[in-house]
From TrEMBL:
EC main group: hydrolase
Organism domain of life: Bacteria
TM spans (from-to): none
GO molecular function: cytidine deaminase activity
Annotated catalysed reactions: cytidine + H2O + H(+) = uridine + NH4(+); 2'-deoxycytidine + H2O + H(+) = 2'-deoxyuridine + NH4(+)
Keyword set, alphabetical order: Hydrolase, Metal-binding, Zinc
UniProt xrefs under InterPro entries: APOBEC/CMP_deaminase_Zn-bd, CMP_dCMP_dom, Cyt/Deoxycyt_deaminase, Cyt_deam_tetra, Cytidine_deaminase-like
Described purpose of this protein according to its UniProt entry: This enzyme scavenges exogenous and endogenous cytidine and 2'-deoxycytidine for UMP synthesis.
Protein name: Cytidine deaminase
PANTHER family recorded: CYTIDINE DEAMINASE
Length: 137
């Protein structure tokens, strides 16, 4: 995707940066923040929340999506998400998050990802993140 996509979603990236400040990551010391754009134009933040039983950890992307749904947003209407991780040059959603994004985001949604190197920022479509996915929609 183009630099224009990054510019169009700079506000979301700023919100994802703020979300990363709320992380609970004492085991990995790897903060991640996400900001989700709803169909109504609202932004819902999420951060990673770890647990000593690592399988119970929740990623920032899923935290934002689940929070939005908990607040009454409708699935498959979310327009975009920004993901930010300050300790790597570029971040991308894990496999579990990719599957959840595919099911809960709007089909034409974009995912903007940024790490410590703003020049490495990437924007992906859901098809690019999870090509050939099993999809019930």
């Amino acid at each position: 995707m183009t630099d224009q996509h990054v510019h169009d979603h700079q506000h979301l990236l700023d919100e994802a940066r703020l979300a990363a400040q709320a992380t609970y990551s004492p085991y990995s010391s790897f903060p991640v923040g996400a900001a989700l754009l709803t169909a109504e134009g609202d932004v819902v933040r999420g951060c990673n929340v770890e647990n000593i039983s690592y399988g119970l950890t929740n990623c920032a992307e899923r935290s934002a999506l689940f929070s939005a749904l908990s607040q009454g947003a409708l699935p498959r209407t979310f327009k975009a998400m920004a993901v930010y991780a300050p300790k790597v040059p570029l971040i991308s959603p894990c496999g579990a998050c990719r599957q959840v994004l595919l099911e809960l985001m709007a089909p034409d949604a974009v995912i903007v990802c940024q790490g410590s190197d703003p020049a490495a920022t990437r924007t992906w479509t859901l098809d690019q993140l999870l090509p050939g996915a099993f999809n019930a929609f």
